[in-house]
What does this fold into?
Amino acid sequence: MNKVAYEQKEKDVLKLPYSTRYQALKQEKIRLKKIEIAVPVGYQDKIKKRLQPNKCFVESIKFARDVKEAIYCIGQFQKSEFFHAWIEFKDQDYCFDGTFQAFYPKEKYYEYRGLKKLYTRSSAEITELANKYEMHGLYPEDRQKLKSLLVSSSS
It folds into this structure.
């Protein structure tokens, strides 16, 4: 999908009422409950009690900034081609989804969500970007990287 088509698809989704998007997210959370694992020791105080709709980048960045062993991942849903961010951990077979505020076995998470990992950043890299831009979200460097990936995949 090229950049223009991606941006149009994103706008179309965001036109849906928030309640519709939230209900869809709740249904996805229920579906993922089958593979959810207990919060690993040491991360209990990092988890929020509510879903964080449309905040996968923000929540993943906050988590990575606070947890040195976190690996910030950016990927793409294979069905919708939307971008997504989540957290993985070096030498661990689980990951954290900031939208759902839950941990999952990495392999099953990829399968259930239909994800393809595009690239990663270390906790130190993401902290540096967060400090540089004084915000959490998709940074210009990430936008540029994703743009180049979109261009190369449509060629």
Notes: Helices lie at 3-15, 18-32, 56-66, 106-113, 123-133, 140-154. The mean pLDDT is 89. Residues 1 and 97 are 24 Å apart (CA to CA). The first strand starts at residue 70 and ends at 77.
